[in-house]
Amino acid sequence: xxxxxxxxxxxxxxxxxxxxxxxxxxxxxxxxxxxxxxxxxxxxxxxxxxxxxxxxxxxxxxxxxxxxxxxxxxxxxxxxxxxxxxxxxxxxxxxxxxxxxxxxxxxxxxxxxxxxxxxxxxxxxxxxxxxxxxxxxxxxxxxxxxxxxxxxxxxxxxxxxxxxxxxxxxxxxxxxxxxxxxxxxxxxxxxxxxxxxxxxxxxxxxxxxxxxxxxxxxxxxxxxxxxxxxxxxxxxxxxxxxxxxxxxxxxxxxxxxxxxxxxxxxxxxxxxxxxxxxxxxxxxxxxxxx
Length: 290
What we know:
Layout: H1 3-15, H2 19-25, E1 26-34, E2 38-42, H3 43-56, E3 61-71, E4 74-84, E5 98-110, E6 113-121, H4 125-129, E7 140-141, E8 144-145, E9 148-153, E10 162-169, H5 173-190, E11 196-204, E12 207-214, H6 228-237, E13 244-251, E14 258-260, E15 267-269
Helix pairs in contact: 1-2, 2-3
């Protein structure tokens, strides 16, 4: 089988949503790389990557614009990916928007199997076409490390009586993605729990932290009675999840809320003036405390 035929079998597996076919196209130890997944993921991880794209874009297609064997065992293929985002992408809700992303693959073939695929495309194209934020920032500058965060609020104007704070250290990018997906499922369930106020998730490299505000120190115990959280805890305590971490519950001590008067523009302590500013004007509604 020549290199072009091997590459075509690989593309056919993508088109027909054949994860086993993707795995079978690679030699043992074969790798896949592109701007989204990084360098050199395994053939099994490549199949999982494909499954995630198929879930997010059930109508996903790859149109091969051109392909050629540029030297023995090396195939270069230009393609156009199209799809409509009607499924979850990395835990995010579907946007219903369509994408069209051009790219190219450089495929190394050895003995009728793929040794490596190096994909190139604009990594900003999919999120931008879906209306998602694209943040460009350094990983580290001196003692400062940078990452991303997510906030989920109920809108309750209730002072938190306690915070549960958790930190997990993922062992790989894939594990960090798994932790993120579990966190999103847990937060969806917390939105239905009594006493839940808000949740913030932060990711810096492989370190992932959450801070959850509750009305009372006892409210967080609902997380252990069912749903996704108990299973996630068992994965963490067993061999499946994270290099280590920290869990804690903090009772709220002093908690002072402020709001700005829209007339005199002074900041007012709601403990001492819950309704009116010292200038005599009514105060606007306070923001959610957390």
